[in-house]
């Protein structure tokens, strides 16, 4: 494996892990403050217990998210020094603001975790709200920096030099809003369903049912609302990509021939030799409509782009199909949850809880697939149409060893966090621990 | 605006060294304690560091962001040529952070604590050593900055410049400085009958800092390391070092008397003096390589970028510093100010 591939794999690998930790750390504070508010309003000790239990989850994920994020901030430079040398000054603004938001979050979390019975009740709860809000702000700012890689703006590129830099315009690049909205909703969907599913499993196992039902309801409400809103954001993203990165759209759909009234493919196997898609379901004219809001619009196919600017089509296509498929499934079960609020008998049926248990990983798989679409779909560019990834990689050889080391470290980290979480959940069944 | 950015760069560096340094040092103190004192230290660390622990470490992110936004080519040299020690620092930070959380947040306190404890103590020692080695390498005059990678071996370009006597000594010096800061902090955070433990540790750590500092200077002088010879010749630096040496005497007296406020103030001043001395010796040339020097100011981004960065830092500072201050005060970190 050459240095570039090793560096790309290491980046992909660290991001895949960081995204999970960061999303949970970003979304769980909201569950925590809802439970906390309910405790303050009702004085029902179950809510207090739930808040304190979720707070431990928040602390663990915050720290693991923070350390893996610190690692990433270094890795950007360590792996892609040439990229950071030019891009750093341009997209420094979202990163410096993210640093500030993250700092605020760390301070607020310090207050929240250690403030029980020490600071005024309402202020204590409010510091929890700040944790949630600044966490989401951090996420949005980081995604804005990524948006710039897809939609570089805020500078002039003259003779290979980046001049007339405008950091504010770079922050507010054309992709920032659609990407940040899509990501934030995805984080809420994935975390909402995952946390709800873990509690559903406890109900399925008939452990401490009262507490877990309350927990389930809070988490799934966030997840379900986000899942139901997601298609609107997805549509905005698709139209945006069609306009700015047509080759990415063509790869997402494995759309080879340029045509008017292009059909939408569902599923399908990509044959890169014959440049065809077999075993697909076709919805006539749907792609033209989804991409441009016009059933007869022309959608440019991969064959009309030079081969050296095309991403890996099968990976992008399968990832896209996975994301949309799982997203739709979660949307359906989001609706199922709202129906179950009327049809209360479903809550006494164990199958209901089993189904939600099975949904635990799906949101995160969809979320990772979405990032694969964004990142692999942008290749071979690290800065769309400006700088190729291969020109940005570190000149230091032997990146493969660095990659192996990170695989080892992050695997251990994941196992450890999973183990710790299992112990947290188990501890809920020991009533005297809190 | 460039001065604002430089001010924040210096302040972040200083705060990182003092706050994160005390934090790393706490783990080192724990590592070099008897079994009984290890448990005591662990409890004290949790009580003292718990609320501010994460905030202490964000200064390094601020530092990195200032460098990559404001001084991209300077940062580029660091990440290319010091890739390996920086990666080792990252591993240390990751392991330490994780161990800290695990040992305090694990739902059950059982045998797994032994593993977390060792992870925490070990990474508390090696992380500042690698950090110090990285800083030492910037000034050791052994980096080879080139575009012609084929003409040099991997060892010459990416290993030898940081894996050498001078850098290792600087690494050990920084670790001892961390232990010094932590043991002084812990004097004021422990109960009266435990204070003796940290008084002894502070005395030992002070001796270690002075001793290793002296060895670093001698080694550098003997091996003709430009930074050290310039350090000794610069009247401002020499003045600062003499001042810091004189201050050791009142420091030792106040350690013996277990005076919380004075020891902390003096320790803080000591570290600031050492850091400022090292910083001004060659400023703005902050990388002394074998074949060329890198001037920080010459790598500054265009004015517009520096302006936006400066404004972001001022706004961020206005939001963060009062919050951080309030946090530390609320949990009685800044006892100095209460007395």
TrEMBL record, chain A:
Pfam families, per the entry: Cyt_bd_oxida_I
Record's GO cellular component terms: cytochrome complex; plasma membrane
Alphabetic keyword roster: Cell membrane, Electron transport, Heme, Iron, Membrane, Metal-binding, Transmembrane, Transmembrane helix, Transport
Record-level GO BP terms: aerobic electron transport chain
Keyword Transmembrane helix: yes
Main location per the UniProt record: membrane
Transmembrane regions: 12-36, 57-80, 100-116, 123-145, 180-203, 215-233, 318-340, 352-373, 403-422
Gene Ontology molecular function: any one: heme binding
Top-rank taxon: Bacteria
Database matches in InterPro entries: Cyt-d_ubiquinol_oxidase_su_1
Compartments, record wording: Cell membrane
Topological category with respect to the lipid bilayer: Multi-pass membrane protein
Similarity field: Belongs to the cytochrome ubiquinol oxidase subunit 1 family.
Name assigned to this protein: Cytochrome ubiquinol oxidase subunit I
Source organism per UniProt: Pseudotamlana carrageenivorans
Automatic annotation (TrEMBL), chain B:
Any one Gene Ontology BP term: aerobic electron transport chain
Family: Belongs to the cytochrome ubiquinol oxidase subunit 2 family.
Record keyword Cell wall biogenesis/degradation present: no
Transmembrane intervals: 6-32, 53-71, 77-102, 122-145, 165-187, 207-225, 231-253, 265-290, 305-325
Protein name: Cytochrome BD ubiquinol oxidase subunit II
InterPro entries with a match to the protein in the record: Cyt-d_oxidase_su2
Keywords, ordered alphabetically: Cell membrane, Membrane, Transmembrane, Transmembrane helix
Organism for this UniProt entry: Pseudotamlana carrageenivorans
Domain of life: Bacteria
Places the protein is found: Cell membrane
GO molecular function (one): electron transfer activity
UniProt topology in membrane: Multi-pass membrane protein
Keyword Coiled coil: no
GO cellular component, as recorded: cytochrome complex; plasma membrane
């Amino acid at each position: 494996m050459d240095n570039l591939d090793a560096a790309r794999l290491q980046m992909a690998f660290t991001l895949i892990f960081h995204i999970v930790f960061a999303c949970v750390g970003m979304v769980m504070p909201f569950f925590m403050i809802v439970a906390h508010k309910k405790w303050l309003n009702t004085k029902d000790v179950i809510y207090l217990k739930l808040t304190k239990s979720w707070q431990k989850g928040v602390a663990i994920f915050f720290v693991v998210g923070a350390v893996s994020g610190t690692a990433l901030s270094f890795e950007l430079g360590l792996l892609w020094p040439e990229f950071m040398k030019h891009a750093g000054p341009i997209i420094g603004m979202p990163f410096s603001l993210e640093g500030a938001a993250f700092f605020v979050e760390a301070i607020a979390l310090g207050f929240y975790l250690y403030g029980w019975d020490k600071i005024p009740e309402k202020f204590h709860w409010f510091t929890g709200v700040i944790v949630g809000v600044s966490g989401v702000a951090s996420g949005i700012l980081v995604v804005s920096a990524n948006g710039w890689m897809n939609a570089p703006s805020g500078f002039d590129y003259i003779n290979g030099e980046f001049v007339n830099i405008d950091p504010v315009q770079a922050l507010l690049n054309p992709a920032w809003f659609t990407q940040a909205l899509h990501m934030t909703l995805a984080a809420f969907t994935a975390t909402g369903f995952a946390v709800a599913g873990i509690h559903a499993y406890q109900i399925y196992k008939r452990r401490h049912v009262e507490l877990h039902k309350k927990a389930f309801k809070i988490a799934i409400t966030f997840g379900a609302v986000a899942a139901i809103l997601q298609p609107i954001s997805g549509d905005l993203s698709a139209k945006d990509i069609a306009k700015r990165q047509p080759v990415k759209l063509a790869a997402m759909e494995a759309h080879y021939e340029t045509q008017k009234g292009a059909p939408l493919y569902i599923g399908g196997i990509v044959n890169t030799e014959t440049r065809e898609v077999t075993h697909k379901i076709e919805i006539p004219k749907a792609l033209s409509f989804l991409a441009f809001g016009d059933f007869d619009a022309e959608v440019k196919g991969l064959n009309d782009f030079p081969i050296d600017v095309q991403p890996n089509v099968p990976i992008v296509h399968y990832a896209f199909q996975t994301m949309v498929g799982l997203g739709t499934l979660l949307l359906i079960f989001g609706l199922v949850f709202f129906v179950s609020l009327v049809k209360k008998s479903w809550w006494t049926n164990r199958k209901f809880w089993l189904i939600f248990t099975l949904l635990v990983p799906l949101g995160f798989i969809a979320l990772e697939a979405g990032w694969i679409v964004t990142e692999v779909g942008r290749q071979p560019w690290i800065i769309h149409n400006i700088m190729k990834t291969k020109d940005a990689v570190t000149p230091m050889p032997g990146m493969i060893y660095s990659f192996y080391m990170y695989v080892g470290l992050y695997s251990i980290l994941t196992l450890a966090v999973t183990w710790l979480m299992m112990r947290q959940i188990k501890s809920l069944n020991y009533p005297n621990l809190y | 605006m460039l001065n604002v950015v430089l001010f924040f760069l210096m302040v972040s560096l200083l705060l990182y060294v003092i706050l994160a340094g005390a934090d790393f040092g706490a783990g080192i103190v724990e590592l070099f304690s008897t079994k009984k004192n290890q448990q005591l230290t662990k409890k004290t660390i949790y009580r003292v560091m718990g609320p501010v622990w994460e905030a202490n470490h964000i200064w390094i992110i601020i530092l990195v962001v200032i460098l990559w936004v404001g001084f991209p080519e300077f940062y580029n040299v660091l990440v290319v040529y010091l890739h390996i020690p920086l990666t080792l620092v990252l591993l240390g930070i990751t392991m330490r952070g994780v161990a800290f959380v695990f040992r305090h947040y694990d739902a059950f306190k059982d045998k797994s604590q032994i593993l977390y404890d060792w992870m925490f103590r070990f990474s508390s020692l090696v992380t500042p050593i690698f950090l110090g080695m990285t800083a030492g390498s910037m000034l050791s005059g052994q980096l080879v900055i080139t575009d012609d990678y084929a003409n040099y071996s991997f060892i010459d370009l990416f290993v030898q410049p940081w894996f050498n006597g001078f850098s290792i000594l600087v690494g050990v010096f920084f670790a001892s400085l961390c232990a010094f800061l932590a043991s002084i902090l812990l004097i004021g955070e422990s109960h009266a009958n435990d204070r003796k433990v940290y008084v002894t540790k502070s005395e030992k750590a002070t001796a270690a800092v002075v001793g290793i500092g002296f060895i670093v200077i001698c080694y550098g002088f003997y091996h003709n390391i430009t930074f050290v010879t310039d350090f000794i010749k610069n009247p401002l630096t020499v003045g600062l070092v003499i001042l810091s040496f004189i201050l050791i005497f009142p420091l030792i007296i106040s350690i013996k008397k277990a005076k919380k406020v004075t020891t902390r103030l003096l320790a803080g001043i000591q570290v600031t003096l050492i850091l400022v001395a090292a910083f001004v010796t060659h400023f703005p040339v902050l990388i002394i390589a074998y074949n060329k020097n890198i001037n920080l100011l010459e790598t500054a981004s265009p004015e517009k970028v520096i302006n936006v960065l400066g404004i972001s830092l001022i706004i961020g500072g206005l939001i963060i510093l009062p919050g951080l201050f309030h946090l530390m005060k609320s949990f009685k970190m800044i006892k100095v100010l209460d007395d």
